[in-house]
Structure formats: C-alpha cells, structure tokens
C-alpha cells in the first residue's frame, strides 16, 4: 500500500472517529452495521495472521460496558453462548493470546 493510500486511510479513520463522537444518531442502522462489519473482519483477519495484538489504540474511549454490550450482541446474533466462547479459548483458539499486552 502506498503512503498516499495510507494517508487516505488515516483521513477516513479521523472522519469515522468524528462520526462516533457525534453520537448514536450520526449514522443509521445499516451504515453502522456496514462500518462495524468491515472493521470487524479486518481486525479478525489481522489477529488470525498475528498482525494485531490489541483491538484498540491506547486511550481509545471504549469502556468495559461498550465491550460487554457489543460482545453480547455478537454472541446472540451468531447463536453462541459464553460457555462456547470459553471452551474455544481453552482449546487454544486464541493464537494471539500470548501477544496481548
């Protein structure tokens, strides 16, 4: 990826952060789902490839409640139970786990 493409992505990230700061009514449901799905797929692919160690940059205004709410939504939509997530993790389903800070 060229430096101009990376600069373009930095601009997109800044714009998305501004949208998030504007509150939940800044986008409609469809837009929110599309943005989340794209970022989610990219983060998952990077984690699987060992290229990402943490999902958020330092000082990101994401709190524990945000994480639990979204995690619960993801588990429910995919018809997964917390037990299944714990089982997957206990069976070595976290190749990135040793790299988490």
Into which percentage range does the β-strand content fall?
under 5%
Question: Gap between N and C termini, in Å?
Answer: 27 Å
- Give the number of DSSP strands: 0
List low-pLDDT spans: none
- The assembly state of the depicted protein chains is single chain
Shape: globular
The SSE order reads: HHHH
Instruction: Output the radius of gyration.
Output: 16 Å
Quick check: average pLDDT? 85
Give an overview in words.
With 101 residues, the protein is mostly helical. It has 2 domains: 58 residues, no CATH class; 34 residues, no CATH class. It is built from 4 helices and no strands. The longest helix is centred in the N-terminal third of the chain and has 20 residues. The mean pLDDT is 85.
Brief sketch in words of this structure:
This protein has 101 residues and is an all-alpha fold.
Task: Name some characteristics of this structure.
single chain, 101 residues, mainly alpha, 2 domains, 62% helix
């Amino acid at each position: 990826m060229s430096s101009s493409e990376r600069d373009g992505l930095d601009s997109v990230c800044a714009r998305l952060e501004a949208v998030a700061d504007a509150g939940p009514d800044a986008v409609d449901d469809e837009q929110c789902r599309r943005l989340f799905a794209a970022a989610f797929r990219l983060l998952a692919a990077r984690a699987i490839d060992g290229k990402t160690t943490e999902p958020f940059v330092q000082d990101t205004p994401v709190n524990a409640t945000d994480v639990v709410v979204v995690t619960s939504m993801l588990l429910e939509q995919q018809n997964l139970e917390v037990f299944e997530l714990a089982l997957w993790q206990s069976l070595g389903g976290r190749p990135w786990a040793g790299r988490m800070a």
